[in-house]
Amino acid sequence: MGYMPENKLLLSMAIPMMISMMVQALYNVVDSIFVARLSEDALTAVSVGFPLQNIMISVSVGFGVGINALISRALGQKNLKRANDVALQGLLIELISCAAMVLVGWLGVEAFMRSQTNIEEIVHYGVTYLRICMMLSLGIFISITYERYLQSTGRTVYSMMVQLVGAVTNIILDPIMIFGLLGCPKFGIAGAAYATVIGQWASALFGIWLNRRKNPEIHLNLKKVRFDWGLQKEIAVISVPSIIMACIGSITTYIMDILLFRFTPTAVAVYGAYFKLQSFIFMPVFGLNNGMVPIVAFNYGAQKPERIHKTFRFAMCYAVGIMLLGFAAFQLIPDVLLGWFDASETMLEIGVPALHRISLSFLFAGICIISSSTCQALGYSIYGMLISIARQIVVLIPSAYLLAGTGVLANIWYAFPIAEIMSLAMSLLLLRRALTKTGMLLPKAA
After folding, report:
1. Contacts for 427 with CB less than 8 Å, ≥ 6 apart
2. Tens digit of each residue's pLDDT (9 = 90 or more) over 259-300
3. Does position 25 have pLDDT exceeding 80, yes or no?
4. Which SS3 state, helix, strand or coil, does residue 244 take?
5. pLDDT by residue (tens digit) across 340-365?
6. 3-state secondary structure string across 124-172
7. pLDDT at 170 exceeding the cut of 60
8. Minimal CA–CA distance to 268: which of 200, 355, 206, 350?
9. If you ran DSSP here, which 8-state letter would residue 3 be given?
10. Are 306 and 3 in contact (CB under 8 A)?
11. Are 156 and 17 in contact (CB under 8 A)?
């Protein structure tokens, strides 16, 4: 990571991650496509339950960000002992986080669903799905932890394989367990949840095996595990802002669902379908992002600012290109995309203008994502958190609330591009600030 040409290195690390993220996106869409075959209420329930499920994923992925950045930085400093200490403490905090999510799944799911809607069928579907996903969530916490070990040491092909195993398992099991194929009982929406959990465990077990066989830099001595407050604090400094950023997204979705229910439950189904569809656009960018972060962190540890600048510039160009493709698809064939979810005429009537207007935000989002993640890799995760708070809490939610006050459902969707424009200006400003503070800002050419 310290010597290969930047573009070649970025592509070699990012492409496997982008492929695995695309498979994840495919899983997200396929999962909802099968659930939509049950009923529109089932699709709406999964959409309503998304914020709580996303908090669980955000916690596991957020701590994975801290683990990844600190291991990569330690390896850049050639400090193998510290890299292994970080890996062990990272696993410990992931397991503690999992225990907290299991408790929430046991006690809080029904209250969460009823806080958004009193439609009993939607509540029943949502409680069934969420309770299974959260109470059996250990697989996702282990999977993400071991996948980040591979990623932080530059073994992104193996990292991709870990994600692929889980996603493919999930996709295969979805129709079998939802509709009772091949002799399997018909579980309905519970089948979607069971398929998700089994896929996560398949990924976790494969990740453990790959790390033991193919990742010589990381050696975990679980017999000597002890809580190290110093390292936990370092992981938290990077991870907590990332977790808060993602959880803010869940809060935004939760409030948006409440606003949309005031118009019609179909609007919530459209919003849920949008989230699944946009994952085809954002997931490859996140994969690019995951390939970029260890490169930036490594070269920050090695004090090579030129490589950092070249890496995030290439990443920004690729991210903008991907977002432009997504924008074109949402503008040109929104009816085809919504048709994947058995969209009714009412759903199409609401969904087509929604995709047209929300996708305007894609024009700015790629730069924002890469800028924020570069700040994280440099140890300034707080900047990414501030951007997310400003975008969603300060701008998006108030804008959506005011636009909902017009009484025209289609106007609400303009809140997304409005928020993204503000995020763009703030992202570039804070990226420059992070580069300056770390001494990684290149001097201006004479």
Report:
1. 367, 368, 371, 372, 387
2. 999 999 999 999 989 988 888 888 888 888 878 888 888 888
3. no
4. helix
5. 888 889 999 999 999 999 999 999 98
6. HHHHHHHHHHHHCCHHHHHHHHHHHHHHHCCCHHHHHHHHHHHHHHHHH
7. yes
8. 350
9. S
10. no
11. yes
Tokens coding 137: 């969530």
Decide: 301 and 82 in contact? Cβ < 8 Å. no
Residue 256's H or E segment, with its range, is: helix 229-261
99: which residues sit within 8 A by CB, 6+ positions away?
Answer: none
Distance CA 300, CA 288 (A): 18
Beta strands in 244-369 (DSSP E): none
Q: Which residue pairs from 302-307 have beta carbons closer than 8 angstroms and sit at least 24 positions apart in sequence?
A: 302/2, 302/76, 302/77, 304/2, 305/435, 305/439, 305/440, 305/441, 305/442, 306/442, 307/2, 307/6
Tokens of 207: 């990740």
Dump pLDDT digits (tens) for 51-105: 888 888 889 888 888 888 888 888 878 888 888 888 888 899 999 999 999 999 8
Which residues fall within 8 angstroms of residue 40, CB to CB, at 6 or more apart?
265, 266, 269, 342, 344, 347
Asked if residues 326 and 278 have their Cβ atoms less than 8 Å apart, the reply is: yes
Letter string b/e over residues 320-350, b meaning 16 or more CB atoms within 10 A of that residue's CB = bebbeebbebbeeebeebbeebebeeebbeb
Q: What share of the chain is helix, strand, coil (3-state, %, to 5)?
A: 85, 0, 15
Which tokens in the block code for residue 328? 């074109």
